[in-house]
Structures are given as C-alpha cells and as structure tokens.
Amino acid sequence: MALSTLLNFAAGIFRTRNAELPVHLTLVAKLFVIIFLAKFGWRYFGPPFLPFVPLFDEIAFPTLWHRGIQLIALGCAVMILFNQRIRAACFILGLTVLVGILAARLSYSNNRLLFSVIMLLIGLYRPGRGFDFLPLQMGFLYFGAAFNKILDPAWRTGLFFENWSSVLGHTWYANLTTLFPPQMLSMLVCWSVIIIEFALLAAWLMAAFGIRWHRAPLIWVGVPFHMALSFYHGASFGMFFHLAPVCYLILAEWPKEPIQVRYQEGRPFWARLRRWFERFDFDRFFKWRPVRQADEVRHAGTENKGHAEILSVEVDGKTETGFRGLRLLFLYNPLTWFVLCVLALVLTPKGVLSVATYVLCISGLFVLSRLFDPIGQRFVDWLSARPPTTGEQPQT
Amino acid sequence: MKPSDEGSDEEQVTTSGTPHGQPRDASLARSTFSAANGMMLFLIFAFQVSAIVYARFHETRYFCWAPFDIQTVYAIRAFDKQGRELSKAETRDRYRMAPEGVDQRSYQHVFNAIEQYETSYGKNDGYRVKIEYTVNGGETLAWHFPRS
What we know:
The complex is a heterodimer. In chain A, about 40% of the residues are buried. In chain A, helix 3 packs antiparallel against helix 4. In chain A, about 60% of the residues lie in helices and about 5% in strands. Chain A has a four-stranded mixed β-sheet, with helices on both faces. Chain A contains 18 helices and four strands. The interface between A and B is large, with 41 and 36 residues.
C-alpha cells in the first residue's frame, strides 16, 4: 500500500496536466529542471564574486546567501517536478539563476541565461493572452547570434571557423580545406550558420505571431543545426546541447480531446502494446479501442490505407495509420521526451559527447523523419504478422 | 434571511463596478498582477535589446546572445608588489579563473574580470597584470593592468 502510494507520488514527475500551464510548457519546464539537476545546476551559485551589480558585494553573509539561493533553487525544482505552484516555482527558479549570474561575473554563460529567461517566461505565462512570448524569446536568441556574427569580419571571412577547427584539432577539416581556395570552405560554413540563424529568427517570429505553416521546417532545421554544432565541438556547451532541442517543444501542442487509438482485435502485439501504453500514460491522453472488423479501422484511416487495418490514431480529427500512427503514440506521450532527455544526459558525461550520443541523435532524427516510414511500416507489419487470437474481446 | 441573499448594501459595495460580479478586491489584485506581469515581460525584453545594442559599441558580449563567436587564447601573468610572478595555482586562486585557456565569448571578459578584481578586492595589493592573447588565431597582443 505504502509502496503503491510512493510509486503514485513518484509518477507525478511524469504528469504534465495541471491547471496552471498547458502540457507542452509543463513538459519544457520539467525537462529543464531535469537537465538543471543532472548538470548539478545548484553549483552555479557561489558567494558573490566580481558581480555585475556592485550591490552584491555588500551582502553581509555571503556563504549564507549562496546556501540560501541554492536551497531556493532546489526547492523550486522539486515543486516543478511534482506540479506544485508550477508557474511561481518556474519564475523563482529562473530569477534565482539570473541573480546567481548577476552576483558572479565569472558564472556568466549563455546556456544559464537561456535557462533563466525561459523559466522566467514560463513563470509569467498567462492563458488566453493572445501573444506567445516564448517564441519571441527564441527569436531574440537567434537575432542576437546572427546579428553579432554578420557584423564580425572574422565570421564574414571564415577566419573564425578556420581557427576554431584548428583549436579543436580537427585535422580532417584542415585536410578538407586543401581542396578549396584558402578559407573558402570556412567562409561557406560561416555564412551557412549566419543564414540558418536568420532563417530560424524569422521562423520563431512567425511562430510568435501565430503563423503556423513554418513549424515543421523550423524544427527540422533548428534541432539538427544545434546538434551539428555540438557534434563538431564534441561537447555540450554546458547545458545548451540539452536545452536547445527542448526549447523546440514550445511549438508543440497537445490535443484537448483524448487521442483515439483503434486497433484490430485479436492482434496480440497491439493488445500487449496497449497494456504497456496504458500503464505509462500518466495523463490519460490516449483512449484505446479494439474493433472487430478491419474495415472499422480502415474507415477511421484517411491516409496510408494499405496499412489501415493494423492501427489508426486520431488526433484532433486528423488520422494517421500504421507506423505513422505508432510514431504519434510515442510523440504524444510525454514519457518519451523524459526518456530521451535522460538518455541524452547519460550519454554526455561531463559534457563530452560520446559516440552513443551521435548514434542516438542521428537515429532519433531518422526515425522521426518521413524517410523512415517505409522501414517503420515493414517493422510494424512484421510485429503484427502473428495470427489473430480469439481470446480478446473488443471494448467500447 | 442572510444579508447576502438580500443583496445588502455591503455586498453591493464589494461587487459593484466589476462586470462578472467578482469582489472588487479580487479584481484589483488581478489587474495589479496583470500590470506587474506585463512590466516584467517588458523589462526582460528591454534588457536584452539594450544588451544587443550595447554590444555594438563595446567589446563585451554579455547578455546579448553571442555565444562562441570569438576564440581568444590567453595567458594571465600577475606580479606582486615586489615583482614576483604568481604561480599558475596562485593566479587561479586569486582570480578564480584558468590562468591559461580559451575564452569563447570575448577577450574583453577576461580583462574586465581582472580589472574589476584589481580595482576592488585587490586594490591595496598593488599587483601588476599582463595578459597575452590572440583573437581568432591572429597576432599575439598584450593587455596590461594598470593600463598606464
């Protein structure tokens, strides 16, 4: 009984439905907190030292101060994980990190600033405001980055990338540059980065103003872009490698109505999958229903009808079938994002990207892309190939 | 009968002037919260705009979203009043930063930290500091404290 209560309490970490924030922002906040804790974020706070604001040097008990803000930050992190006063906790945690930066110049870094600002803005979120400030913030980030680069001669000429590669010891890149006129390849890379950052700026601004068509390309450019930079650097830039892809969840929207999942009865694989999914569907996002006739599933499917008899998943009136439906099951289950986040953290010990990180990121992107659909569908067909059993009864 | 059922004068005072019949105090608190919320949003974005503009006129790159845009290889050499050069460990202890390394944002950040230390905590120590640095693999330059 006590164990069951404890497990139920622990499962609260993975619950993303609450009265204060929409699902996607709760998810972003929780993933940020997990990254913060995994990276020992409380160590960012020390006694004031070379502060940006001289006032911090006047603090009478610096040790007490730094223990105090560490405690506040950890308390807020726990509150966010367990859905307690989540907006207030996000705001205070963001503010604490910002104050930590302002009190110690040497602790300044862009990834901590990003953490702080996103948490502050989640804390200031108000439903029904009509304007979304989080995409605007992401626009600011890319504007600052692109604007600074385009005005820097070292970026315009490719000198920065040439030197960075040399500092990183990428001899393969040095060999590659010999195939081009001097600094030409580096200049191409630098200008590509600048153009991508300006494009991301435009796309995030459109997201802020509610223009929807751009969202998929934005994610497909933005996330691999950050991954590529980290891959080249070989390190995680502090928390940035983990925070940046999570920021793209700002664009996600979870359906208000339950997601309808229909599968043909008597298929043992789908019955098993259903049991597992229901066990880990902490927010009850999915409503599963086995149907007697393949036609009923097919009727629900509007695309990919050749595989419609296996599975159909309906999200806000749009239906996907077969492997694409299966992929939606995973994408709309917040647990998937928790697992991916923890995996990415485990695979980057001390901020160094391991080979497994590269494999995880590249294969993850491939599985999410349409290119993987034929392979995925074959896999689903193979899983479903076992003959129907008569034991299972359809439910309504 | 309870006064509230009658719509007493007291209740009229607390609910009048609010379109949804909420108590005036709650409505006032909500609008105050809303104004504070808007003000904080304004401050967050205004601060970033100021930092981006400031970075155009100075070499520092704080709060302006310019990560990893400059590679500065530097080496700090500090000398006490008697002219003795501090060891690397002593330099690290004094400034709490690597005595040699690569700064990824702006060389000015290294100078700022040293200058702030020597003009605040260490202003009575009379230390001299020399920083040799290269920006993006260019020629080696030197920065001195005191500047004269």
